[in-house]
Amino acid sequence: MTASPTSSYATKLFVINIADKILLVHMLTIVMLIIIRVICTLTTTTKTATLPPGPLHIPILTSLLWLRKSFSQLEPFLNTLHAKHGPIIALRIGSRPSVFIADRSLAHHSLVHNSSIFSDRPKALPTRKLMSSNQHNISSASYGVTWRTLRRNLASEMLHPAKVKSFSEIQNWVLDTLTNRLKTASESESFMAIPHFHYAMFCLLVFMCFGERVSVEKVNQIERVQRTLLLSMSRFNILNFWPQFTKILLRKRWEELLKLRKGQEDVLLPLIRARKQNKGSKSVVSYADTLLELELKEENHKLNEDEMVSLCSEFLNGGTDTTSTALQWIIANLVKYPDVQRKLVEEIREVIGGDDSGLTKIVAPGGETLGGVIGAFQHMI
Ligand SMILES: *[C@@H]1O[C@H](CO)[C@@H](O)[C@H](O)[C@H]1NC(C)=O
Ligand SMILES: *[C@@H]1O[C@H](CO)[C@@H](O)[C@H](O)[C@H]1NC(C)=O
């Protein structure tokens, strides 16, 4: 009778012992890996070019300290460093050095006079590399033929005023949808305007991207995958710390990232494929159409599906938050300054000649929509 508890106790002890040993082996491996890494880093840094002055960098440890800091802590920290080391300093945040310039003439000299040296983008970190199909989006492609091809395609095929005109029918439809939604929502006592702006921008951008008026559910689905990815990217930064190592230790988080990317492909790819299949019967030229035609001279191939997903995703992201936030601010300020609002209405009346029928359309925030999209993209590229 008494044997069983004792034996289970013994088993427990044995299990704990084994667990301890496994843990110890794990810890030792980690410590050894860190030591090897430190040695590797120390031997390679001696070969890199001399950097501007900055605080002491201890491989691994400094990166770990940075991981704990929030972005808002960066500016005050930089100010103290500039006071100590001068206007140009180098900091090692993450796996590569960043140079900060705190003097406008020096900044002008480097970014304008010597722009060719600084205009390239660094190699993407592993999680970002995955999301942009190895830097195949305009905002991360390295400076060169591929970047120029992608940028020119967007500027001349989509954002050129003549091309924007071809979307006027859908602009009006989106504007009507937005005004109706805002009118209905404003009947309740308090409401948030931003989700309606988001939705309107998504409807417009999804149409411009895939040339198709998709269902409300589909728009919501696209918006969901895009937003989830956008908001969770910072959570995956830690995976870049040392990828070979995090691929083992943080396998679950890598899988989560791959799943999110897969979810995005599942939603966007069918729309791209549909465009590929019904060649010829198209009333407008969508962004996906231009991508299907595009040839990357430098890499000597057409864009693959993965790259097209990344570019479409960039197109959708690039114009949504930027424009909706601008619209929200415009509306908030019009509410806050009634005299500005009155002046605006008067100006509109002058232009449309006292005919109030079109007024809601122009006063409605959506009137700014396309200008906003173009502005946002011009900032981005
Ligand atoms: C940077 O620009 C100046 C001219 O403003 C030029 O004299 C200098 O050679 C450039 N430096 C490099 C490294 O190209
Ligand atoms: C382009 O790809 C990079 C990753 O390399 C990503 O950080 C960035 O958000 C992407 N741009 C847009 C607008 O989605």
Description:
The relative contact order is 0.09. The longest helix has 43 residues, at 3-45. This protein has helices at residues 3-45, 61-68, 74-85, 104-113, 115-118, 126-131, 145-158, 161-165, 168-186, 194-210, 216-232, 243-249, 251-277, 287-293, 305-336, 338-352, 359-363, 369-380; strands spanning 88-93, 96-101, 295-296, 301-302. A hairpin with a 2-residue loop joins strand 1 and strand 2. It is mainly alpha-helical and 381 residues long. Helix 13 (251-277) packs across helix 15 (305-336), helix 14 (287-293) packs antiparallel against helix 15 and helix 15 (305-336) crosses helix 18. The chain has three domains: 7-48; 52-119, no CATH class; 145-321, Cytochrome P450 (Cytochrome p450, Orthogonal Bundle), CATH 1.10.630. The protein is globular. Strands 1-2 form a two-stranded antiparallel sheet. A two-stranded antiparallel sheet has the order 3-4. The chain binds 2-acetamido-2-deoxy-beta-D-glucopyranose (2 copies). The site of one 2-acetamido-2-deoxy-beta-D-glucopyranose has 12 residues, from helix 6 and helix 15. This is Cytochrome P450 89A2. GO terms for molecular function: heme binding; iron ion binding; oxidoreductase activity, acting on paired donors, with incorporation or reduction of molecular oxygen, NAD(P)H as one donor, and incorporation of one atom of oxygen.
